[in-house]
Amino acid sequence: MQREERRVLVVEDDRTIAESVAARLRAEGFVVELAHDGPAAVVAAIDHAPDLVVLDVMLPGFDGLEVCRRIQAHRQVPVLMLTARDDETDVLVGLAVGADDYLTKPFSIRELAARVHALLRRVSRAADAEPGLEPTIVLGDLTIDLAQRRVHRAGVEARLTPTEFELLVHLAGRPRTVLPRERLLHEVWGWQDASATRTVDSHIKALRRKLGADLIRTVHGVGYALEVAR
Asked: CA-CA distance, 86 to 101, in Å (whole number)?
């Protein structure tokens, strides 16, 4: 049985960059659609129902953050955000509106393709509950419904991206255990290169913003631990 081709929407106003990214992803076996401004990106996301969106922050019409908000309001889809500045505020805002990962320009096309593959693998893994975990995880006032992929803290629901959800479930499976950044990067993101541990830090900060600063403890120089007791 032939495997269904994955669809990727590339949103980038620099047409040279857009075509380079599209050429590489097509060579990797993806069906690629292009959009070059904010309004066109939203229309393309609705019309083509991509499996993943590569989204530049700086766009004409309206910016990538607004594109991400509108796309996620219509249908949740993994988003790899492209940002021209390695500014933590920009990254956190992007994660807050529904981006799953980010790359800072300039980037290598090879790395972008690897990130796309890794993000799609994470989304596929997240469709199934982790082995050994109950259908619902309850830790103090934190409730994680694995089947419905819903998270509540103190009765209030938090909307998480697929990557945030998988990271939280990973930490919840080992409460109060300090997990090194490198281990999280390998087990959640599927990356072997430990140089990108800042990605872990950014997602932890996004989880704290959505679920409370006291939920996850930082062990400086080591990693993170979920602090809600059973």
From this structure: 13
> DSSP string of 82-119?
EESS--HHHHHHHHHTT--EEEESS--HHHHHHHHHHH
Instruction: Name the H helices within 62-214.
Output: 64-74, 88-96, 109-126, 162-172, 181-184, 197-211
Of the candidates 212, 190, 214, which has an alpha carbon nearest to the alpha carbon of residue 200? 190
Overall average pLDDT of the 195-201 stretch: 73
pLDDT per residue as tens digits for the range 93-109: 777 777 888 888 888 99
- What is the residue whose two structure tokens read 């229309």? 43
> Can you give the pLDDT at residue 4?
65
Q: Are 196 and 85 in contact (CB under 8 A)?
A: no
| Each residue's pLDDT tens digit, 66-80 | 999 999 888 889 999
Order the strands of the 216-219 sheet from edge to edge.
179-180, 223-226, 216-219
Under DSSP, the state recorded for 132 is T
52-56 and 31-35 strand pairing: unpaired
Residues 10, 43, 98, CA angle at the centre, nearest 5°?
60
